[in-house]
Each structure stands twice: as structure tokens, then as C-alpha cells.
Amino acid sequence: MTQERDADRDPDAQPPTEPRADGGTVDDVALDPWGSSTVSDYRKLFEQFGIERFEEVLGEVPDPHYLMRRGVIFGHRDYRPVARAMREDDPFAALSGFMPTGDPHIGHKLVFDEIIWHQQQGGDAYGLIADLEAHSARGLSWAEIDEHARNYILSLLALGFDPEEGELYRQSSNRVVQDLAFELGAEANFSELQAIYDFDGETDVSHMQSVVTQMADILYPQLEEPKPTVIPVGPDQDPHIRLSRDLAARLRYFGVTEAYASFELTDAERRTLALVYEDLADGGEATDGDDASGEADDTLRCEDAAAFLRDAADRADSFGTPETRASLLEKLDNAGMEPLRPRVRFVDRNATEEAFEALVEAVDGEKRVYENHVDAFEVDRGAADQLAREVEVAHGGYGFLPPSSVYHRFMTGLTGGKMSSSVPASHISLLDDPEEGYDKVKAATTGGRETAEKQRELGGEPDDCPVYELYAYLLASDDDEFAKRVYDECAGGERLCGDCKEQAARLMEEFLTEHQEKRAEWEDRLEDLDIDLDTDRKR
Ligand code: TRP
Ligand code: SF4
Question: Pocket residues for ligand 2 (CB within 6 Å)?
Fold first, then answer.
């Protein structure tokens, strides 16, 4: 998956700067699942795409994996529910998929390790072979796919995936996934895929089908029961993650939002109104002469909020954009005397009549029932989410939680530049002869200086060294002290590239030897597993 893309595009080409479906602007970061993903500036992923920094959740993760500790896993979307489930021993899942377009290599190992680690933390783990995608988006024949699929599966098993506890499948033979894909396809239309993936009139229908198939893969772990699910991927897969989060919500019976009056709010308006409400309810200035601030709460009206927002024009910036303020003011003015009271709103999206009635019934405390929603005044947001989901599941709905994701950095190629499966010297395949692996490391580009003397004087540049990356991402394994020592010795000028590469090359050779022994062991047991590695599909 995602480690690298075949270089079928000029990696230096600047994508056009144009607004995207998500409202962000593409500068030199393009997230294209089928393009050549080079990410030159990870900060842009946070700013433009709303990926969150992993370091912000790191402290909530029990016993985090070394890839997390070392910042190789650098970003996430909504990982908190997964971390919480892990801490509280609640059900959660991890799933990722691999396009069998070539040999699995050390970039894929990151993802294998992530799945396996989540499995060891108690999650339901899934590894899938994206053969439909490889066939439709990359044009691989089924014979090629069969061969590669076997190799991915073997490496995943050799690295510690437990097939008794977890599930391995191929997209093409998972009927349940395909049925779910069909349902999901009913919620997405061509214009949307066009906007997200740049599809056009020439795009194969099967390629589009592979997109809904991936959506189904991502939601598959929740079919039996909704649960936090993490999808470890490279950032190029983020468009898929965002779409899956959208689709998960669209299939829900109920949506839960927060409101302050009978009208609906956009997210931005809600943020602004929340601030206004907070100020007003604190006994703020706008409640004209009403000094009994304890009471202010009960008597607040939409017009008070409108007046407050107009008064606050001088500190306007803290109350959202001018557009947000204008649209919110209009709504508040229209509502006039209507009381302003925070509430949780359950919106009927696709619910059956019974399900909606059951929900109304189940809401505790003061509530107000409308045709397409019910407002609850005494239920908190978290409890509301849970209630909606329970009622939904009890009445035949999916109740999906939006899937979460974690993103890892792309590994630099051993020859500098991008790691690419079409350039053998740039990567180390998990199937490479151990000696070949040794040789490739020895031949790698480094972050060293021109001469040993200079290196002693100035130190090397481990941050720009593919060999250091090998240590940090793989060779140092769980040993943080070792990784740090390599870094410090390099930066301090005590470590010279020749010896450093020799050490790395040996470790790589050992790793490959051991990995391939384990693969051989699994080879004999592959038959016993419930995965079909020979399709009878043609072409
Ligand atoms: N599209 C992914 C890739 O290019 C493969 C994939 C298919 C996948 N289904 C998935 C990844 C589900 C994560 C989750 O590598
Ligand atoms: Fe890279 Fe090692 Fe040379 Fe430092 S000493 S630049 S880590 S090869």
C-alpha cells in the first residue's frame, strides 16, 4: 500500500493550486491514492487536510509502538476512540489493505507491524489483499495478482499476524464486502468521486467499483458490531479515509448534533454560537440590565445573541469569519424571541419509523419532538451518540462509528529520493536475498560529509540519511536507546558512514534471513488457512 507509488508521474511536477472538494488548497502536497505520492512537507498535511499530529494523542496510547514513539507514525484522524478502547479493554479493530502489484518490501512492513501491534493490543485485526483494485486501477493480471497476494500474506504472517484471531481476505472473494460496497455505492455519486479522485469520463467503471470496495473494506470490521476501527495507511490514502468517514455517517439512521434553538447550524456557526452562548450565560454584558446572572441562562433569547454578536464586532475575529457571523446573525434574527437553549439534536437521516419512535421513547428528560428530529435538553453529547447507535443497531441499522486512521511517513529510497518498487535499488524487498539486502544497504546514499575529517568535525546529518531511517524504522526495532545512540553518534561526528552502513547492512541481512525462515515455516501452513490464493478468474 501506500509506501510508494510507481513513478508514472513526474514526482517534481507541481499540482495546480486549486480549491479542492474539502475546501483546502493543494500546494505542493497532493494526496492521490494512485499517483506518485511524495510528501515534501508534512506540515501541510495538518494545515490543508486537517490531519492531526500524532504526538498529541501519543500520551493516551498504552505502551505505544516504536513507530509512534519515533514519529514515523506522524498523524491521525480521530485516533482517540481507538486509544480509549485499548485502555479500557473495549472492542476495537485495525484493518489495512495491500495492492498486490509487486513484492512486499520494507515500506509495507511498517503497515504489517501496525496491524500486528493493534492485534497484540487486543484489537480485531484484518489484512486484506486489494486484488480488485490492483486489477482495475493498475491492470495486473490475475496470475500476477495470485503470486503477489501469497507473498504479502506470508510476510504478514511471518511478522506475527495471528490468523486464528484475525482475518485475512481478498477483496475478490469476500462476498460480504462486495455486498456492503454495493450499498455504499448507493450513497456516493460520480460527481463526488470526480471531485475527490479526479476521475473523468475515461475512468473505468471497475476502478470506481474498487473505490466503494475499499470503503466496504474499511467498514467491514464494524458489520457485526460498531466499534472504533483504525486504518493504518500512508497519507496518500487520506482521501479514501475522508470519504469512508462521510459514507459511514450517511448510512446512519441518526445523526447527532448540538443546537441552541429550533434552526440548524453549520459547524462553523455552531462554534461561533457556542462562544456567544458561553459569554452570555456567564452573565455577560448583552443581557441588558439583568444583573441576576444566575437567571440570565433561562431568559436568553436568540435576539440577545444577535445583539451580543453585533456588539462584539470589534473582537469579531474570535467569533468566526465575517461570512459565518453574517449567516448566523440572519438565523438568530429570524428566530427573534425564541429562547436560546443548548440541546442535543437527534436527526433522522435514514431511520425507519419504528426506529425513530423507539429513539424518541428512549430519550430521557425534557425533549421536544419534531418531524425529522428530536431535541433533548438533559442528555449529554456522548450519551446521545451512544443512545442513537444502540437504538439504531437494535432496529437493524449499521450504527457505524466514523473510522479512524493513522499515517506513517514515506520511507526515503536507499538511493535518495523516493522509495519505489519499480527501482529495485531504492528499496529492500522482503524477498530479497539477505546478501542482496546487505549489498543494497552498503550502496545506500547517506547523510554523511565528503570526508571522514569533515564528518568528525561537523557530524553527519542523520535527519537526511536513508541509512539512519533504516535504523529508526526497522533495524533498531523496539530499542529506542540504540536508535538514539546511532543518531547522537552520527550528529556528534563519532560515527562514520562506512562502519555505520556495515552495521546496518549486517542487521538487515539478519532481519531478512530470519524473516525468510519464518515465511518458509508459514508456507507449509498456508493451506490450512481460510484464504484462497488461486483464483480461477481469467485475464
Ligand atoms: N488502496 C490501498 C492501496 O493503494 C489498498 C486498500 C484497499 C486499502 N482497501 C483498503 C488500504 C482498506 C486500507 C484500507 O494500497
Ligand atoms: Fe547516515 Fe550513519 Fe553516515 Fe550518519 S553515520 S550519515 S546515520 S550512514
Answer: 446-448, 460-462, 465, 467-468, 486, 490, 495, 497, 500-501
Closest ligand 2 atom, residue 444 Cα: 8
Burial 134-143 (b: 16+ CB within 10 A, else e): bbbbbebebe
- CATH number, domain at 246? 3.40.50.620
Under DSSP, the state recorded for 463 is G
Q: Does residue 152 contact residue 104 with C-beta atoms inside 8 Å? A: yes
Residue-level pLDDT at 484: 96
Q: How many domains does the chain have?
A: 3
C-beta of 33 in contact with ligand 1 (< 6 A):
yes
Name the domain boundary from 408, 438, 461. 408
Mean of all residue pLDDT scores within the chain: 90
- How many angstroms separate the alpha carbon of residue 465 from the centre of ligand 2? 6
Same domain flag for 351 and 276 = yes
pLDDT tops 90 at residue 20: no
Q: In this predicted structure, what is the pLDDT of residue 283?
A: 65
Helix and strand numbers (H, E) in the chain are 22, 11
pLDDT in tens, 149-167: 999 999 999 999 999 999 9
Q: Which three cell numbers stand for residue 256?
A: 447527532
CATH code for the domain of 436: 1.10.240.10
| Atom of ligand 2 minimally distant from the CA of 495 | 5
Say whether both 344 and 242 belong to one domain.
no
Q: Check: CB of residue 406 under 8 Å from CB of residue 466.
A: no
Cell numbers found for residue 79: 485516533
**Do residues 507 and 475 lie in contact, with contact meaning Cβ atoms separated by under 8 Å?**
yes
Same domain, 278 and 371: yes
Residue 59 domain-assigned (yes or no): no
Model confidence at 198: pLDDT above 90: yes
CA distance 452 to 161: 43
Same domain as 272, residue 371: yes
Do 104 and 240 share a structural domain? yes
With a 6 Å cutoff on the Cβ, whether 96 touches ligand 1 is yes
Does any domain span residue 35? Answer: no
CA of 394 to the centre of ligand 1 (A): 31
Q: Measured from the CB, is residue 140 less than 6 Å from ligand 1?
A: no
Q: What's the 212 CA to ligand 1 centre distance in angstroms?
A: 11
Mutate-to-test residue for ligand 2 from 440, 486, 500, highest number of ligand atoms within 8 A of CB: 500
Q: In this predicted structure, what is the pLDDT of residue 504?
A: 98
Range of the domain at 508: 424-528
Mutate to test the pocket of ligand 2, among 501, 502, 508 (most ligand atoms within 8 A of CB): 501
What's the pLDDT at 9?
Answer: 35
Give the ligand at the shortest distance from the Cα of 108: 1
Taking residues 273-294, what's their average pLDDT?
67
